[in-house]
Amino acid sequence: MDPTVQTPFAVSVGTSDLDEARAMCGEHLYPRSMRLIDPSARLAARFAFLHLGGLTVGDIRYGAAVAGECAELGSYHVNLVQAGRFAARQGSRSINGDTSTAGVYRPVGHNFLHGASADCHLLGLSVNTGVLEEALAALLNAPVRGRLRLAEHLDVRRPPGRTCAELIRLLADEIHNPSGLIYQPVIAAPLQESVVISLLLAVGHQYQDALRQPTPRCPSHRVTRAIEAIRAEPQRPYTVAALAEIAGVGLRCLRQEFHRQVGMPPMAYLSEVRLARAHRELVDADPEQTSVAEIARRWGFARPYWFTTRYRRHYGLDPADTLRGTHHHH
């Protein structure tokens, strides 16, 4: 584990004061100017930020139409619009966003926010340059030189953009969850990794074609090792990088072979295997001795709610019914 990675932490604040709003954004995201488009309007800002390793997620509402500018960001950034819209420029590139299209920023170039609507609700994801570039190098199994020229827009209505948006929302939901999962490495590391990989697969850049090429020389028998490791010990805190290491292959080869051998990406497969183990345990468990939440957590499903939803989709009944032994077999 990288010693520079701090424990995740979250902070939230509400303010009607422009200076305080500027200071918060400056401390947690980027130093910037901010002004009300209609000077008689009243700011009703609500900000929450989550710092997680090389990622920062901001949940941002201004409650009034605002504009402003900001020097170079120094990191890659996505603005996912939950409501309303915004219009901006980075250098000579126009970046606009609404609920169907996220705006994507590069580390360099001066930024102008022409305007965010009064009802604008943004989830901002900031990714350290090193984190995104190292993940790409691991996917390509080749060095990445220079900055990524990310495209300005990301369609979040359909995959792969939708997947990326869902992961950003998932992280943002965790900001207000003090007992949150993101404080558990077994959840945090794979979640952080999947957000970064999903962004690389969803947004346009100069390596996108290389990422979509099948990898030659991908030894299938080696990837079988990773599949067997999951079956043998599904409770281990695997990340895709850890599975690639077990197999001794690059991430792209790993993903490619998982699709070929089990029909899904590595983490989805891990999740399926864990769900089946949790199911078996619910069937065998004594409802006096254990709870659904306990079994879910043991198998890496951090929130009972997600677990119940997945379980219901897969088994057609509530985990609580299985635990109590009221099996309705379809």
Can you walk through the features of this model?
The protein is globular. The strands form two sheets. The protein has a seven-stranded antiparallel sheet, sandwiched between helices. It has a five-stranded antiparallel sheet with strand order 2-5-10-7-8, with no helix packed on it. Among the domains are: 163 residues, Sandwich (Jelly Rolls), CATH 2.60.120.10; 55 residues, Arc Repressor Mutant, subunit A. The protein contains twelve helices and twelve strands. With 330 residues, the chain is an alpha+beta fold. The mean pLDDT is 91. The longest helix has 19 residues. Strand 7 and strand 8 form a beta hairpin.
Produce the secondary structure layout.
Blueprint lengths: L8 E7 L2 H11 L6 E2 L8 E8 L2 E7 L4 E5 L4 E9 L2 E5 L2 E5 L3 E5 L5 E6 L4 E8 H12 L12 E3 L5 H14 L10 H18 L5 H5 L7 H13 L7 H8 L3 H12 L3 H19 L7 H7 L5 H12 L3 H6 L6
Helix pairs in contact: 2-4, 3-4, 6-7, 6-8, 9-10
CATH architecture of the domain at 9-171: Sandwich
Strand composition percent: 15-25%
Q: Could you say what the CATH topology of the domain at 9-171 is called?
A: Jelly Rolls
| Distance N to C terminus | 45 Å
Name the overall outline.
globular
The stretches of 5 or more residues where confidence is low (pLDDT under 50) are none
Instruction: Please tally the β strands and state the result.
Output: 12
CATH homologous superfamily (4th level) name of the domain at 9-171? Jelly Rolls
Report the sheet with the most strands, covering strand number, pairing sense and barrel closure.
Answer: 7 strands, antiparallel
What is the string of helix and strand elements? EHEEEEEEEEEEHEHHHHHHHHHH
Mean pLDDT: 91
Helix content: 40-55%
**CATH C-level of the domain at 9-171:** Mainly Beta
Number of helices: 12
Which secondary-structure class do the elements indicate?
alpha+beta
How do the strands line up in the largest sheet? 1-3-4-11-6-9-12
Please tell me how large the radius of gyration is: 22 Å
